[in-house]
Amino acid sequence: MTIRQLDPADSVAMDQWYDLTVAVTRYDVPDFPMPRRPAAEHALLAWDGERVVGAASYQLPQSENRSLMYLDLIVHPQYRCRGIGTGLLEEVYAVARQHERSLIEVETVRALPGGVARDEAGYRYLTHRGHRPGATSIRSRCQVAEHDAGEVAPADGYSLVQWRDVAPDEIVDDVAALQSRLMVDAPTGDLAVEQQVYDAARVRRQESEELQRGYRSYSTAARHDSTGQIVARTKLSFESADDTHARQRTTIVEPAHRGRRLGLAVKSANHAYTQANEPQLRFIDAWNAEDNTHMRAVNAALGFEPVDSWSAFQLPVARH
Question: Cα separation of 33 and 36, whole Å?
Answer without folding.
Answer: 9
